[in-house]
């Protein structure tokens, strides 16, 4: 592959040296996948570094009883922290991912990734800077799970929608938070009783955003 126009989406790589560009031109490939595609499964080998050009996927962990919890999302111009961890540690994937909006990725095979990490200071800095930022995001998630009530976490999920109309189902919210649908439904009814939201069939309407912000401990 000789066309490296996609690199423009990652400004940190603007001054990438020619040797590194030659490696990318030889090894990198562009892949696309529709909604619902499983990008990788827990326990699968990690074979390539992911640089997201478009779309979005959800990275999640599944418990022994089949319950899921959202770890993070990978959107355009992002990289994947778990993929980076697995490549650096030569380990298999400890989680799974599914496409939520049609994706377009640049994939760098492990052999090329390892060579770039050795040969290119600019590429190495890019990888480690993104890795550090994503680790910080995971620490925020751990803080929410360990120290915030389920009510606060649900309020945050609703606020993150950025719209007064939330089309996620109770099951989808439960999957994101790693809990049961019935528990989410009870909490939503309590939040509704406080005048923050109105529950309808297939959607949730935010009535008082300031009340949700208080519940989310903003």
How do the strands and helices of this protein lay out in sequence?
Blueprint: H1 18-27, E1 29-33, E2 38-40, E3 48-62, E4 68-74, H2 81-89, E5 96-109, H3 110-119, H4 121-147, H5 150-160, E6 165-166, H6 170-177, H7 181-193, E7 197-200, E8 203-206, H8 209-215
Helix pairs in contact: 1-3, 3-4, 5-7, 5-8, 6-7
Could you please describe the fold and organization of this structure?
- The protein has helices spanning 18-27, 81-89, 110-119, 121-147, 150-160, 170-177, 181-193, 209-215, and strands spanning 29-33, 38-40, 48-62, 68-74, 96-109, 165-166, 197-200, 203-206.
- The chain has 218 residues and is an alpha+beta fold.
- Strands 1, 2, 3, 4 and 5 form a five-stranded antiparallel sheet that branches. The protein has a three-stranded antiparallel sheet with strand order 6-8-7.
- The chain is elongated and about 60 Å long.
- It folds into two domains: 5-146, Jelly Rolls; 148-215, Winged helix-like DNA-binding domain superfamily/Winged helix DNA-binding domain (Arc Repressor Mutant, subunit A, Orthogonal Bundle).
- Helix content is 44%, strand content 25%.
- The longest helix has 27 residues, at 121-147.
- The chain is built from eight helices and eight strands; from the N terminus they run αββββαβαααβααββα.
- The protein starts with 17 loop residues before the first helix and ends with a helix.
- The mean pLDDT is 90.
């Amino acid at each position: 592959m000789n066309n490296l126009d996609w690199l423009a989406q990652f400004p940190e790589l603007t001054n990438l040296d020619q040797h590194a560009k030659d490696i990318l031109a030889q090894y990198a490939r562009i892949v696309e996948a529709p909604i619902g595609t499983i990008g990788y499964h827990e326990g699968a080998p990690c074979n390539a570094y992911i640089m997201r050009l478009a779309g979005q996927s959800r990275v999640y962990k599944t418990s022994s009883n089949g319950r899921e919890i959202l770890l993070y999302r990978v959107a355009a111009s992002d990289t994947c922290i778990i993929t980076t961890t697995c490549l650096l540690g030569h380990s298999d994937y400890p989680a799974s991912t599914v496409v939520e909006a049609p994706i377009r990725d640049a994939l760098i095979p492990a052999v090329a990734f390892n060579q770039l990490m050795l040969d290119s200071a600019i590429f190495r800095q890019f990888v480690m800077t993104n890795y550090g930022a994503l680790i910080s995001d995971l620490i925020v998630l751990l803080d929410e799970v360990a120290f915030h009530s389920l009510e606060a976490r649900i309020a945050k999920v609703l606020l993150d929608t950025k719209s007064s109309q939330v089309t996620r189902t109770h099951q989808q919210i439960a999957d994101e938070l790693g809990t049961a649908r019935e528990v989410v439904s009870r909490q939503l009814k309590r939040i509704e009783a406080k005048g923050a939201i109105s529950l309808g069939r297939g959607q949730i309407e935010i009535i008082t955003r300031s009340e949700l912000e208080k519940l989310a401990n903003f």
